[in-house]
From TrEMBL:
Residues 265-287 are annotated as: Disordered. It comes from the Eukaryota. GO terms for biological process: regulation of transcription by RNA polymerase II. It comes from Gracilariopsis chorda. It holds the Pfam family Cyclin_N. InterPro entries: Cyclin-like_dom (IPR013763), Cyclin-like_sf (IPR036915), Cyclin/Ssn8 (IPR043198), Cyclin_N (IPR006671). Residues 269-287 have a biased composition (Low complexity). GO terms for molecular function: cyclin-dependent protein serine/threonine kinase regulator activity. Belongs to the cyclin family. This is Cyclin-C1-1. Gene3D superfamilies: Cyclin-like.
Length: 287
């Protein structure tokens, strides 16, 4: 991994302080228990990580943009309770912000329209463009302006090229994609997630991978932990797979919980200036 990763906010503010992040996340889960059961909280994470990927695909955005948005989404809910902030809004806002951070163009009206198009529930999607604009700044503040994200895709490709594992690139890629349906992006450095994905892909093809791993200057115990963590996603597919009925049930429960807040927000936003008078924000990122 490039030297600037170790100096980045990704490492210094999040991975180096992972115990602190998870202490906050555990506190938020306990706060949510009175409203959402533990399995519902986990389903919400998976469902809206997948929805972000689907929205990015429909918008013809690169996988990197979706991955950045998912990290924003998971970081946000590591420090905030679901009962206080609707995932149905945070997810499209995260993608809208990630597109800017990754220097892509995605109009707010497009992401809202596509969210409404794929929304599964017994009611219409309740948010509009003005809600996205309003929550964009709240999301940035919650992330403490740490918007530069490092991902495992580039290291994975480089490691495979260096080891002549050209056939493992396409095998490891979906494993990396699935890792974003878990908290791996909050727990582990991207380069180790990349190595773990290559190891799993090679093992699934009956390739001997141990000697390759031993030659790398890495913590083998930490790598073993990541391999076990990612492998568990496939041992229990329910961790990263959800069905249509589950999605609809979760959305209906979210609507029931947030209905009053949405009505109050509509009244408040109606008093704000129209979006045409809203100052435009341009992100110029630098570490």
């Amino acid at each position: 991994m490039a030297a600037n990763f170790w100096n980045s906010t990704h490492y210094r503010h999040w991975l180096r302080k992972v115990d602190e992040v998870y202490k906050q996340a555990d506190a938020m889960m306990k706060k949510d228990q009175s409203t959402f059961k533990e399995d519902e909280q986990n389903n919400i994470k998976v469902i809206y990580s997948q929805i972000i990927s689907t929205l990015a695909m429909k918008s013809k955005l690169r996988q990197r943009v979706a991955a950045t948005a998912i990290v924003y989404y998971r970081r946000f809910f590591a420090r905030n309770a679901v009962r206080d902030h609707d995932p149905r809004l945070i997810a499209p806002v995260a993608l809208y912000l990630a597109a800017k951070a990754e220097e892509h163009t995605l109009a707010a009206k497009i992401v809202v329209a596509q969210m409404a198009d794929i929304y599964q529930a017994d009611h219409p999607y309740p948010y509009s463009v003005i809600h996205v604009y309003d929550y964009e700044f709240k999301l940035i503040a919650a992330l403490e302006f740490d918007l530069i994200i490092y991902h495992p895709y580039r290291p994975m490709i480089q490691y495979c090229a260096d080891a002549s594992f050209h056939d493992l690139v396409t095998a490891a890629w979906p494993i990396l994609n699935d890792s974003y349906k878990s908290d791996a992006c909050l727990r582990y450095p991207p380069y180790l997630i990349a190595i773990a994905s290559i190891y799993i892909a090679g093992t699934l093809r009956d390739r001997e991978m141990t000697n390759w791993v031993k030659k790398m200057n890495i913590d083998l115990q930490e790598l073993a932990d990541i391999i076990q963590y990612l492998s568990a996603l496939y041992a229990n597919p329910s961790i990263i797979r959800t069905s249509g009925p589950q999605v609809e049930r979760i959305n209906n429960k979210l609507q029931s919980h947030f209905a009053t807040k949405i009505q109050n927000a509509q009244s408040g936003l109606a008093k704000k200036p129209p979006s045409s008078s809203r100052p435009k924000m341009s992100l110029k990122l630098a570490e």
